[in-house]
Amino acid sequence: MVLSLEQRIFLLLEYHHLEHSCVQTRRSFRRRFDVRRDPSDNAIKALIKKFERTGNVSDDRVGNVGRPRSAVTESNADAIQQVILQQPRTSVRSVASRAALRRMITHRIISHMFTYKIQTCQALSVKPLMQVMISRTLCCSLSIRVISMLETYGSRTRHILTLMALSTSRTGAFGEPKTHMLLYLHP
C-alpha cells in the first residue's frame, strides 16, 4: 500500500499520541481517511524506525520504483525512420548503431512501424503466385484423376495413392501442397 505524505505524517503523530499502539493507530487511520485497507503493524513500525533513523517520512523510492520508462518515444521513432529512409535495405543492428539506440529498442520500434513480419525480403513476381494457385486447383483435379485411374488400372495404382497421401501432407515454399510430384509418377 502506497501512502501519501499526509498519511505518513498522520501515522507518525498518531502513533506517538496513542502511546505506541499500532492497533489504535490503524483504527484512527481508518476513520480519518475512510479506507478499507489500513497499513499493517509492520508498515507502521518500519515508518517509525525510518523516522527515528533519518528524521524524514517521505518516500525515497519515488523516482526508483515501478516499470522503467519505455524508450519507444516519438524522437527515437523519428531517428529510426530517418535512418531507414536513407538506407532502406539495412539491418536492424546497423539501424540501431546509426540511431545510437539499443538493438532491442530499435527492433521494437521497427516492429511497431511495420506491423508485418520483419524478414529479408525479395520481390515476388506473378509466376510463383500463379504456381500456388495452379497447384491448389491441381489438388482437386488430381484426386479425381486418381479415382479414375483406380477404376481403369485396378490394384497397380495403390502405390500412387500412398504417394499422394504423403506428398499432400508436405508443403512447399509458398505453403502449397506438393501434389505436382504425382504428375511425374503417373504411368
TrEMBL record:
InterPro entries: DUF4817. It comes from the Eukaryota. It holds the Pfam family DUF4817. Residues 4-57 form the DUF4817 domain. PANTHER family: HTH PSQ-TYPE DOMAIN-CONTAINING PROTEIN, TRANSPOSABLE ELEMENT TC3 TRANSPOSASE-LIKE PROTEIN. This is DUF4817 domain-containing protein. The lineage of its organism: Eukaryota, Metazoa, Ecdysozoa, Arthropoda, Chelicerata.
